[in-house]
TrEMBL record:
UniProt-recorded Gene Ontology molecular function terms: alpha,alpha-trehalose-phosphate synthase (UDP-forming) activity
Domain of life: Bacteria
Assigned protein family: Belongs to the glycosyltransferase 20 family.
Lineage: Bacteria, Bacillati, Bacillota, Clostridia, Eubacteriales
Protein name: Trehalose 6-phosphate synthase
Gene3D superfamilies, per database record: Glycogen Phosphorylase B (3.40.50.2000)
Pfam families linked: Glyco_transf_20
Any one GO BP annotation for this protein: trehalose biosynthetic process
InterPro entries linked: Glyco_trans_20 (IPR001830)
Length: 484
């Protein structure tokens, strides 16, 4: 196994992706290094691009220690790109990851100000880890490489790299919502974060409203000159382009998986096991932004107010474990499990259990089997940058029937106009829309699926890559996001 000793290639021009979480988590076991695939929208979008383009992915591999990181060819056995592991100490994991990233940036960007813990110590460690990432990037890059930084964990990185690599092309993609300036300005370090980001050449967001929030933030907090018409910022003698480009998916992969006999068979098995006429599905990372308790309450409202549905409808809720060290996530898990128990205690009829709850991650094949088993997917976050589950579900169902209930607070709602909408904070509205989705005639389901599929095909992963790699001009920005 190679240690991190690679120095930038002589020819350059390579793609260097930098994010906190890479394509996999590494675990040192007595039998050797275990490579566990990571699950997130960021990974689903970026990994296929690196596989095709080649290059280097600099990321934390989830390991705690002081030793140098591994340099691994990935995927295993295929060697399409190099994974340059950054190792964090336990103090850094606490302050940078659990602290500043997950207990300040994450709740702030999603509008949960009451959950933000403004700790100076977290900030110090955030800076320290950004510097650590910067050292690795500088070591691995040469002047004509393209650096592509991702997400709220690494906002200081562009400026730290720029100091040592003044002509390097640096772009950034922000995967979560960018909050309104009134909210962002509560962050004591808002100015430093914006200055860090403005060392990029281009910054991408999922929607026009996040772009607008960002432009307002740099104008009001930094007093930077902003050209709203062309979506550019003039700062430090440079021009920074800001674009809206919602991530797309590789829809062909989902269509192909959905057509496989064994996956269709799995879907049948799931339906049989649920003993229900109707299957509702939720698939979410364990997170308070996803609205899982609110969804369970809406389901309870449905069974209370439409008693003839008892024994006929099941909610299959998959919760993928996440951020297990953070108190807010531990208490959320307890809250969900308590609600599941209460609903099942009240509404189990003739041993048909209304909520089936899985606390684990699924492989992509299993995921498609679950999508196929559902009559209606409930993608009802309280706030979500985009949400790829909604797109994956539609692509898996495109050749059949099925409904999608979406929260208007997910970025994907701007693109997927064929979905039913419901306010996740309003249990009655949610229950009524679930009922409407279950009663929807099959031709209407098909027509809505194909209208959503059209946009998923048009704005797929390749389209997204063309937007974010900086080849497109402002006139090519997505129409759907421009309506926001
Ligand atoms: C979101 C973020 C990603 C993050 C993922 C999983 O999708 O945008 O940057 O990697 O959640 O969270 P985790 O804390 O496990 O990396």
């Amino acid at each position: 196994m190679a240690q991190l000793s690679f120095s930038g290639g002589k020819t350059g021009g390579r793609l260097l992706v930098v994010s906190n979480r890479g394509a996999c988590t590494l675990r040192q076991t007595p039998g050797g290094l275990e490579i566990i695939p990571a699950v997130s929208g960021l990974v689903s979008a970026v990994e296929p691009i690196l596989r095709r383009e080649g290059g280097i992915w600099v990321a934390w591999g989830g390991r705690c220690g002081q030793e140098p990181g591994h340099l691994l060819p990935l995927p295993e056995g295929e060697s399409k790109y190099l994974f340059a592991e950054v190792v964090l100490s336990s103090e850094e994991i606490k302050g940078f990851y659990d602290g500043f990233s997950n207990s300040i940036m994450w709740p702030l960007c999603h509008g949960f100000l009451e959950k933000v813990q403004f700790e100076e110590n977290y900030w110090q460690l955030y800076r320290r880890v950004n510097e650590k990432f910067a050292r690795t990037v500088v070591k691995m890059s040469s002047h004509n490489d393209r650096v592509w930084v991702h997400d709220y964990h690494l906002t200081l990185l562009p400026a730290l790299i720029r100091r040592q690599r003044p002509v390097l092309s640096i772009s950034f993609f922000w995967h979560v919502p960018f909050p309104p300036v009134e909210l962002f300005a509560t962050l004591p370090w808002a100015g430093e974060i914006l200055r860090g980001l403005l060392a990029c050449d281009q910054i991408g967001f999922h929607t026009e409203s996040y772009v607008r929030n960002f432009l307002q933030a740099v104008e009001e907090i930094l007093r930077a000159r902003v050209d709203y018409l062309n979506s550019t910022i003039h700062w430090g003698g440079r021009k920074i382009r800001v674009i809206a480009a919602p991530i797309g998916i590789d829809w062909r992969e989902y269509l192909t998986l959905a057509a496989r006999e064994e996956i269709k068979g799995k879907a049948e098995q799931i339906r049989l096991a649920l003993q229900s006429d109707y299957v509702l599905l939720g698939v979410d990372r364990l997170d308070y932004t996803k609205g899982i308790p609110q969804r369970l309450q809406a389901f309870s409202h449905l069974l209370t107010n439409y008693p003839w549905l008892r024994g006929k409808v099941a909610l299959l809720q998959v919760v993928v474990p996440s951020r297990v060290e953070t108190a807010a996530y531990q208490s959320l898990r307890q809250e969900i499990e308590k609600l599941v128990g209460e609903i099942n205690g009240l509404f189990t009829t003739d041993y048909q259990v209304p909520v089936r709850y899985l606390y684990r991650s699924l492989t992509r094949q299993e995921l498609v089997g679950h999508y196929l088993a559902a009559d209606l997917a409930l993608v009802t976050p309280l706030r979500d940058g985009l949400n790829l589950v909604a797109k994956e579900y539609v692509a898996s169902k495109a050749r059949g029937t099925g409904g999608l209930l979406l929260s208007p607070f997910a970025g994907a709602a701007l693109q997927l106009k064929g979905a039913l909408l419901a306010n996740p904070y309003h249990p009655r509205e949610m229950a009524e829309q679930i009922k409407r989705g279950l009663e929807m005639p099959l031709p209407e389901q098909q027509q809505r699926l194909s209208s959503m599929m059209r946009i998923i095909r048009e704005q797929d992963l390749e389209w997204w890559w063309q937007q974010v790699k900086g080849m497109s001009n402002n006139a090519e920005q997505p129409e759907v996001a421009a309506n926001d």
